[in-house]
Amino acid sequence: xxxxxxxxxxxxxxxxxxxxxxxxxxxxxxxxxxxxxxxxxxxxxxxxxxxxxxxxxxxxxxxxxxxxxxxxxxxxxxxxxxxxxxxxxxxxxxxxxxxxxxxxxxxxxxxxxxxxxxxxxxxxxxxxxxxxxxxxxxxxxxxxxxxxxxxxxxxxxxxxxxxxxxxxxxxxxxxxxxxxxxxxxxx
Length: 187
What we know:
By secondary structure, the chain is an alpha+beta fold.
């Protein structure tokens, strides 16, 4: 730095400060924000109200006034489960016998979607998953007969089941029964 003039040194430190600030902002946006959002989703007031820790919960029907999610879809009914695999595997079962679309998606603690099963893939068969932690669990039982083993990339995460309905009031009995087939239970 001896050969730099005072003016050049000043600009060097300004650029260095800008680069470090940009790096930290990028780190926050790309790494921290998804994890923070998932923590609020899995442990925030709405999650506590629904009591969805390692068990299925069934949020109210989405209406024009619903705003817990930005731009919610009034054509979908949701079922949710926040899971924690540190206590052991989680068994996830669902048998939504519907002519309409349905899906079950699993999200890791950083919001990455790592598994999806929908009505077309299930082909009318019930879904039976054995969700296990990344490194397993020391006292882990073997998976139940017929269950598909799914390895989560994180110990905690979120399950979201969607059921399509074009007219909730007319289809209520069928779609409510279908979405309430979701079961999440500690293995």
